[in-house]
Specification:
By secondary structure, the chain is mainly beta. It has one domain. About 10% of the residues lie in helices and about 45% in strands. A hairpin with a 2-residue loop joins β9 and β10. It is globular and about 60 Å long.
């Protein structure tokens, strides 16, 4: 999910062989290949940017709602331990920039959930320490981003002690499927902390090639999947134990409110009911309207 805490890294290799005719793979720095269709061109930076915006955002300033649902695991000495689930929703608007990129305003609300019931947690029993800990709501305030013509996603304003690298790294077509992969890596040095907090994320966007039939389509239906590698969150109270968190989940961009995960809808209706009445309201100040 996009925010100062959202980030990671990986590369995906693709073998092209017999039976995979029609596969086109490009990277942001790859040499141009033949266009895949008149309405979808992944061979040039402007074409990849347009496809990315149609899938993750929109070519106009409509409110775009996205969601993910997944699980988090603790990883110590390469052994995974299921810890809790997560449901989150993002709300964003986009507008073109004079340089060919896009400005974005976005915010996110997420809840950690019980693995058995799926309900948002208030308390959680840490299996590593045996301690009952308070579980926070994760709600990022509205932030502004710049999506550059070469498909870097930058915070409009940097934060002291933070480094962030977010970019689209590959795109490919294997009819009838289109994929775009985004990598994010971020680190934050909090005052008094012994070491930086790291967040890494890989997001894969997926759409149907037929959705790009018209070059005027402002956005297309898009599914998403993510994998994240995260330092122990402070609320886990893991102390100096070695290890990290591994997250995995899936969802959609371009959803409607009623399509958001039931656990998220239930939690936000109790804790932030105003979001359901006007989900775009928190963006108005960041958006400048």
């Amino acid at each position: 999910m996009t925010s100062p805490a959202n980030s990671a890294a990986t590369r995906r290799a693709v073998l092209v062989g017999a039976g995979l005719a029609g596969l086109v793979l490009t990277r942001a720095s790859a040499a141009p290949l033949a266009p895949t269709s008149p309405a979808l061109d992944l061979t040039t930076p402007p074409g990849r940017l347009k496809a990315y915006m149609q899938m993750r955002g929109a070519l106009d300033d409509r409110l775009v709602i996205g969601f993910v649902s997944g699980r988090y695991y603790g990883v110590i000495d390469s052994e995974m331990t299921p810890l809790y689930g997560v449901v989150g929703a993002t709300f964003a608007r986009y507008r073109p920039r004079a340089d060919g990129g896009y400005d974005a305003a976005t915010y996110e609300i997420a809840y950690f959930t019980d693995l058995e019931t799926g309900a948002a947690l208030n308390k959680w029993a840490n299996p590593y320490t045996g301690e009952i800990v308070d579980v926070p709501e994760t709600a990022s305030p509205p932030s502004t981003l710049v999506i550059t013509p070469d498909l870097h996603i930058d915070l409009a304003k940097s934060f002291p002690g933070m480094t962030d690298d977010d970019r689209v790294v590959s795109s490919q077509v294997a009819a009838p499927d289109v994929w775009i992969t985004e990598e994010t890596k971020a680190a934050m040095v909090a005052p008094g902390a012994a070491k930086p907090f790291h967040y890494g994320e890989i997001v894969t966007l997926h759409a149907d090639l037929s959705a790009f039939a018209s070059s005027d389509t402002p956005r297309v239906p898009c599914q998403t999947a993510y994998t994240s590698v995260v330092s122990w969150r402070p609320w886990l109270k893991m102390g100096t134990r070695s290890g990290h968190l591994l997250g995995n989940g899936s969802g959609r961009y371009g959803a409607t409110l009623d399509q958001l995960p039931p656990a998220w809808l239930e939690a936000v209706s109790q804790r932030r009911p105003g979001v359901l009445k006007d989900p775009g309201a928190p963006l108005k100040q960041a958006w400048g309207v």
